[in-house]
Amino acid sequence: MNKIVLACDLGGTNLRMAAIDREGNILYRTKRDTPKSDRADEIVRTIVEQAGECREAVRTSGCVEAIAAAVPATVSVERGMLLKSPNVPCLDGFRMVAALESELSIKAMIENDANAAAVGENWLGASKGFRNSIMVTLGTGVGGGIILNGEVLRGVDGTAGEIGHICVEPFGAPCGCGSRGCVEQYSSASAIVRLTHLMEPQYPKSVLQNKPRLSSADVYDAGKNGDELALEVFRQMGFYLGISMADLVNTLNPEVIVIGGGAAAGWDLFIHHVEEQIRSRAFREPGLRAKLVRAVLGDDAGILGAARLAFD
Ligand SMILES: [Zn+2]
Question: What is the C-alpha to C-alpha distance for residues 166 and 245, in angstroms, rounded to an integer?
Answer without folding.
Answer: 10
